[in-house]
Amino acid sequence: MRRVYFDNNASTPVLPEIFEAMRPYFGERYGNASSIHHHGQETRAAVERARESVAALVGSLPSEIVFTGGGTESDNLALFGITRTGDHIITSTIEHHAVLNACNHLESSGCEVTYVPVDGRGQVDPDDVRRALRPNTRLITIMMANNETGVLQPVEELGMIAATADVHFHSDAVQAAGKVAIDVKRFACDLLSISGHKMHAPQGVGALYVRKGTILQPMLYGGSHERSRRAGTENVPGIVALGKAAQLARKGLQHGEMASISAMRDRIEQTILSAGEAIGVNGAGAPRVPNTTNIYFDYIEGEALVIALDLKGLAVSTGAACSSGTVEPSHVLTAMGLCPDRARASLRFSLGKQNTPDEVEFALGLIPSTLARLRDLSPVYNRAAISS
Ligand SMILES: Cc1ncc(COP(=O)(O)O)c(C=O)c1O
To answer: Are 299 and 276 in contact (CB under 8 A)?
Structure first.
């Protein structure tokens, strides 16, 4: 059975050249990067080359990159590493749970948190952030691109607000890295999270950019790895893969590789929108990363459509992968003002470098009939059709 995967915001396949780059570090290059002998020096050199590639992707110095076990850890290290009891944090209502639940925990341990809203297109208003500042504000943490809608946040303005107020600025760039250009110096950010498995490296590796001079309390205690900011023997194969992924992503951005991905995304949107009624794009009109579209199909249950499409070979998702399985509507979509029914009727299509226009046509061939069948079964749809 043919299978097409349009759920790259949940996880991407490891690209063959990235797999080849990491392969020797599972085999003949096994040294501990802290060892001073040949084997250790070989892996140490590989880790430092990877650090240079990740730094080049985000516009930082190599020494400002800390390797972690993924996006969640990077976000947690940023938040817990910077804040103390009594501090005030500003974040948004549409953050990933890696930030939201870290904020919840910080609240229970004596920090204050302001959750700024977003508008109907899913964007934070920088003036809301400015107004939320307090004398004890220590950190603004607002994501660069939302994982569900792909909507980009005004990080340059937010960085300026933070710098002017002398407050730290962290941005979760897990869904932005490799899809849009990032230059940490341009948007005055002190901390920025990325994750390997959203950019064709494996799951379980990530990085946190920490601006030089930023005092960060570690979360793990042990050896003095990563300049004492993240103890633990380095995941060398994962780090090498992340370095290679960063190198490919940078090259891809320089050569306009994202244009073909956004062309496929636009074709999906246009075809689906023209194929039926009561369908629309969540976050339409806002700047978005090129690979993501989030579409509502009123009168159906998103989960039912995901399952029906999966049975025909197309993998997409409702909301964030980590909240799949719960019946709660997406916190991102409801924060944008969608009613719970419309939020539950929304699907995310997210493309990756491995997807092809032929796969797009395959997907587009499945969607209208699957949607029509589900709507035929929907009592709400039939009532609405009769009353119109
Ligand atoms: C915006 C965002 N932040 C953080 C994470 C967590 O990253 P990881 O899965 O590497 O822990 C994700 C994963 O979905 C994400 O989309």
So the answer is: no
Core vs surface per residue 317-352: b (16+ CB within 10 A) or e:
bbbbeebeeeeebbbbbbbbebeeebbbbbbbbbbb
Q: Give me ligand 1 centre to Cα 174, in Å.
A: 6
CB of 149 closer than 6 angstroms to any ligand 1 atom:
no
Catalytic residues: 322
C-beta 196 within 6 A of ligand 1: no
Whether 174 is in the pocket of ligand 1, judged by its Cβ within 6 Å, is yes
* Alpha-carbon 289 to chain mean position: 10
Residue 338 and residue 342: Cα distance in Å, rounded?
6
Q: Within a 10 A sphere around the Cβ of 256, how many other Cβ atoms?
A: 8
Ligand 1 contact, 148 CB (< 6 A):
no
* 167-191 CB burial, b ≥16 within 10 A, e <16: bbbbbbbbbbbbbbebebeebbbbb
User: Which numbered atom of ligand 1 lies nearest the CA of 322?
Assistant: 14
Best probe residue, ligand 1, of 12, 72, 180 (max atoms within 8 Å of C-beta): 72
> The pTM is what?
0.96
Tokens describing residue 327: 């019946």
Cα 205 to Cα 211: distance, rounded to the nearest angstrom:
20
Residues 32-57 have pLDDT tens digits of 999 999 999 999 999 999 999 999 99
